[in-house]
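Hey, can you fold this one?
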Amino acid sequence: MKYCDLHCDLLDKIRTPAAWTDEGDLQITPASLCGGVFLQVFAVFAENPRADMAYFRAKASLFQKIKARAAACGVRAVLSVENGGMAEERAENVGEMLAAGVKLFGLVWNGGNALGGAHDTGGGLTAWGKTVVEFLAAEGALPDVSHLSDAGFAEVAAIMKACRKPFVASHSCARALCPHSRNLTDGQLRALADAGGLVGVNFYPPFLGGFSPAQHIAYMIDVCGEDAVALGSDFDGMAGGYYKNCADAAQRIEGDLERAGLFSRQIEKVLQQNVLRLLGD
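Sure. Predicted structure:
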């Protein structure tokens, strides 16, 4: 079964459409995307020093070209932001991002930014960060709490609960299996599920802690239910993933989920249905 993926960093790895080829060391190539993926979320990622609107606009333009190539082989492409610092603390810039097609809005990256603290720095949302989360909720976009601090997570969860809107952790794993600050506690997993949101399980071994993605998924289903778990590979944002590339994941993930004890209904939800429900089929 083709899968949906809530996070990849291909846009950060290539500068032009011509650079996206089946040659080289990309984890998502044109052939593997068309061969194994149903829907792919492409993140505009920026480290803090280069997080500005000029960078976002360049990558959003590149996304439109990649989206057209993906659509030609039946793959749906969705745009996201990884590091809301690119908005430069201007509401009109957040609006521009959403108008460009951003559906998932990653508030911070490592080190935090003007919106709030990250998993590695601590500290909650700033006043500006709370304003952005409220704006995203009003506009129907999804705040993305991967990389956010625990305090910031709690504040996003409270805002979205009050708004009765979902939010996501696009590429995170279970902290009970791997005690990394990038991963989510059982309470955080339940908060995501209660809001109708999703966690996309990351394929990066340091976040997996010796377990497989399928084992993290099975654990999360036990904690927060089968409607709240999906995939968030982080392909082209890491080296040495559990699955070496997109094609490898497409070939192995369904069997791995079966061996982890998931029923066919649960596998269909994790691989496709949960993401399609959240993003509007």
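The first helix runs from residue 10 to 13. Let me know if you want another pass with a different chain boundary.
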